[in-house]
Amino acid sequence: MHLADLPQATVDSPPATADRIADVLRQRMVEGVLPPGMPLREASIASQLGVSRNTLREALRLLVASGLVEVRLYRGAVVKALTPGELRDIYRVRRILELQAVEESAIATQDAIDRVGTAVRRAEEAVAEQAWKQAGTASLRFHQALVALLGSHRVDSFFQNIVAQLRLAFAQTATDEAFQPPWVPRDRLIFELLRTGRRAEARSELMAYLDDSERAVLDLLRRGYS
Q1: How far apart are CA 145 and CA 193, in angstroms?
Q2: CA 15 → CA 5, 56, 177, distances in Å?
Q3: Cis amide bond preceding 14, omega within 30
């Protein structure tokens, strides 16, 4: 991984704020560019993003508060590695929000439903191309689009951190190539059930999906702690 992967264009105009810099770094975590344990060197990142070190420090403080970055003695800021307990809490949140989104999908806008389908198609295209990192990102975007069916900007903002934490947990357990293939067809099934108004079936499939995903990631994560 190289800090040169961070695009300057995203923060050129208007003048960057700490919130916007934090969002750039958060999205790079979702995309798998910033993995757990990666040092976040202030001078390098500030230079790459074209911001002051004070602005970057404030952005890092925001990410610490969001559970995405930690500050280690003698090492400075690093991308956070999650514990099994933290992962279980993330899945509790996922069940609350994603299952509720399925329940409320009947009153979601058509554009919101279409965005769920777009995320599924992008994941399928990435799998077909064996672009595994992109497949992982697209699958996470599917779950973001699912939660967005609730129509709440506050919930969407909160869930961005959950999605970033999920990507960090996945990166601690297995490669995208090893982990992603089983999940994308299940994303497709849930979308098709939603699209055709079969919400009870979609809810059942999503519950099984989340249960299976949690067990798989926890098993792998605990091996890393053993």
Answers
A1: 15
A2: 20, 13, 38
A3: yes
Render pLDDT for 63-114 as a digit per residue (tens, 0 to 9): 999 999 999 887 899 999 999 999 999 999 999 999 999 999 999 999 999 9
Mean pLDDT computed over 137-153: 97
Number of H helices, E strands in the chain: 10, 2
Q: Which of 42-46, 62-66, 196-200, 220-224 has the lowest mean pLDDT?
A: 220-224
Domains in the chain, start-ordered, CATH in brackets?
3-79 (1.10.10.10), 84-225 (1.20.120.530)
Contacts of 22 (CB under 8 A, 6+ apart): 59, 60, 62, 63, 66
Task: Copy the structure tokens of residue 99.
Answer: 């299952």
